[in-house]
Amino acid sequence: MPDLHPTDVLLTETQIRQRVRELAVDIRRDFPDRLHLVAVLKGAFMFLSDLIRNMDGFVSLDFMAVSSYAKSTTSSGEVRLLKDLDTTLEGRNVVIVEDIVDTGLTLMYLQEILRARGPKTLRTACLLSKPSRRQVDVKVEYVGFSIEDHFVVGYGLDYAEHYRNLPHIAVVGP
Ligand code: IMP
User: I need a surface site. Which of 29, 50, 61, 98 has the fewest CB within 10 A?
Assistant: First the structure.
């Protein structure tokens, strides 16, 4: 068992459901036609699945995987591409779907490599953002919730691969 456990609930299922619906409406308003979502595994899988269920019309998707913090709760600053996309981004309206932006290093890396593939537009949606932790000035157009500097789990987010299955978001502690 991990040494840290979920303690306080930070965001309830209801709060998340409402906010994800709002984000889906905002994104669809900006891109009412063909839209391509690129979700970052593993943390964004639950956010993605709720997001697309709140979108009408033609929405395609693809997945990428990058290295995470393994068993630590702090970033090493190193980003490694573990799984690349299956299809091209050329000429498409692309929205990156990310679980959480912490230092911003992962997202900065993703935006750089995806921008180089020639999408028509490239934007980012993240469920959570920790602005006080930012090390690089990375642009995020759609933010679900800005949170304080807590390590959080649930709704797809893990600590050492645990707690992704929680339906809410909780802070971890000893
Ligand atoms: P960044 O590169 O520091 O912005 O970190 C981004 C990645 O670190 C996220 O995609 C998560 O996988 C992981 N991460 C950052 N903060 C948390 C957290 O509070 N809980 C779980 N994972 C986190």
Answer: 29
Which of 41, 102, 140 should be mutated for ligand 1, with most atoms under 8 A from CB? 102
CA angle (79 as vertex; 78, 83 as ends), nearest 5 = 155
User: Is the shortest distance between the CB of 111 and ligand 1 below 6 Å?
Assistant: no
The whole-number pLDDT of residue 131 equals: 97
pTM of the model: 0.94
Which residues are registered as beta bridge partners of 65?
A: 41, 83
CB atoms within 10 A of CB 38: 25
pLDDT in tens, 50-104: 999 999 999 999 999 988 554 455 555 678 889 999 999 999 999 999 999 999 9
**H, E, C per residue of 104-163:** CHHHHHHHHHHHCCCCCEEEEEEEEECHHHCCCCCCCCEEEEECCCCCEEECCECECCEC
Q: Which atom of ligand 1 is nearest to the CA of 133?
A: 3
Strand partners, 59: 35
